[in-house]
From TrEMBL:
The chain crosses the membrane at residues 6-27. The gene is ftsY. It comes from Parascardovia denticolens DSM 10105 = JCM 12538. This is Signal recognition particle receptor FtsY. It catalyses: GTP + H2O = GDP + phosphate + H(+). The lineage of its organism: Bacteria, Bacillati, Actinomycetota, Actinomycetes, Bifidobacteriales. Residues 33-89 are annotated as: Disordered. One of its GO terms (cellular component) is plasma membrane.
Length: 396
């Protein structure tokens, strides 16, 4: 074998070794590049719902999710308006409330008049007791005079007879024959808008009473518009709007504090007329009776309102606890704007309810409504018999 042959054999062997090495290397790289798939694990079945029922399908779950989403995005409905207590129901309730709030002066009178023989000092005590509860000097003198000349009192030993006599005399002074109805409730007002202006001093409760009166009319099935003509106190218009919103009653107001109250009254009258409302209630700013310019403003409010609607009622709101000071208020307001009736607030528990008698006799106008609590429906027509029974209570 020559040298050339040996060289070619060596080259062939070397080439074979190189090729074999390349093949082995390629196989190793191929094995490392492959990812091993983990063994499959069987998912445990979901526990069945209690009672053996099948769980919701994917479609049902999707539908439920969509429903919840829609409900979450839905706009909350507007708050429902309230339903005020019916007039007859509240009258029965407030009669009982007034009867439970009998004040001491009736019992004091009864104690004096039940004596066998009354001397001059006893009669003076009777008159003093009447004056203490603001019956008024003229009315007190009249009642004492009637009692002194009544044969049933002189020498009477029957407590029930004395009680009945006292009740009859007080009821006569309260005068149950006065017309206490509101113009809006009369048959001739059907189909017309009855305008009411609320007046009174600061703190008498005009705005609250206006809101409660609106509720009373709504309870009677009447449509109402409120006019916020108290433009000097920003909170008054807000307060009136709160009252109105609770029973679905619109409120006409000015967004400008200190605006002309007469212009608000005029706008309210126009809105009430356009809406063909049954009642327009105009709340005015509280004012002291000795402020001539403010009292003149009430006259202007009335004149401007009457350019659109006749004013059927001017109601003076009086705090029953003010006593004879309330009488002076009543006289000045009557001269400034004219008064058709009185609303007595805080009459429950007041030992000064005699103002009912004195204000009616001084002005010749009736007490038409009374407030007997802080509840929204604690305003009711004045009932003379319940009032007198609340004063003297039951004979023991």
């Amino acid at each position: 074998m020559n040298t050339t042959t040996i060289v070619w054999i060596c080259l062939a062997v070397l080439l074979a070794l190189v090729v074999a090495g390349l093949i082995v290397l390629a196989v190793k790289r191929s094995g490392k590049g492959k990812r091993q798939t983990p063994p499959a694990v069987s998912a445990a079945p979901a526990p069945a719902p209690a009672g053996g029922e099948e769980g919701p399908s994917h479609e049902e779950e999707a539908a439920s999710a969509e429903k919840e989403k829609a409900e979450g995005e839905a706009v909350a409905p507007a708050a429902a308006t309230e339903t005020p207590e019916a007039p007859q129901s509240r009258l029965v309730r407030l009669r009982a409330k007034l009867a439970r709030s009998s004040n001491p002066f009736g019992k004091a009178l009864f104690s004096i008049l039940s004596q066998d023989n009354l001397n001059e000092s006893d009669w003076e005590d009777v008159e003093d007791t009447l004056l203490l509860v603001d019956v008024g000097a003229e009315a007190s003198e009249r009642l004492v005079s009637q009692l002194r000349t009544d044969a049933r009192v002189q020498g009477s030993k029957d407590p029930q007879a004395v009680h009945d006599m006292l009740r009859a005399k007080l009821l006569d002074l309260v005068d149950p024959g006065m017309d206490r109805s509101l113009a809006a409730e009369r048959p001739e007002s059907v189909g017309k808008t009855s305008a009411i202006i609320m007046v009174g001093v600061n703190g008498s409760g005009k705005t609250t009473t206006s809101g409660k009166l609106a509720r009373l009319f709504v309870a009677e099935g009447k449509s109402v518009v409120l006019g916020a003509a108290d433009t000097f106190r920003a909170a008054a218009a807000d307060q009136l709007e709160t009252w109105g919103s609770r029973v679905g009653v619109p409120v006409v107001r000015s967004d400008k504090e200190g605006a002309d109250p007469a212009s608000v009254a005029f706008e309210a009258a126009q809105k009430a007329q356009e809406a063909k409302a049954d009642v327009l209630i105009i709340d005015t700013a509280g004012r002291l009776q000795n402020k001539a310019n403010l009292m003149d403003e009430l006259g202007k409010i009335r004149r401007v309102t009457e350019k659109t609607l006749p004013v059927d009622e001017v109601l003076l709101v009086l705090d029953a606890t003010t006593g004879q000071n309330g009488m002076e208020q009543a006289r000045v307001f009557a001269e400034a704007i004219g008064i058709t009736g009185v609303v007595l607030t805080k009459l429950d528990g007041s030992a000064r309810g005699g103002i009912v008698i004195s204000v009616q006799q001084a002005l010749g106008v009736p007490v038409k409504l009374v407030g007997l609590g802080e509840g929204p429906d604690d305003l009711a027509p004045f009932d003379p018999e319940s009032f007198v029974d609340g004063i003297i209570g039951d004979e023991d």
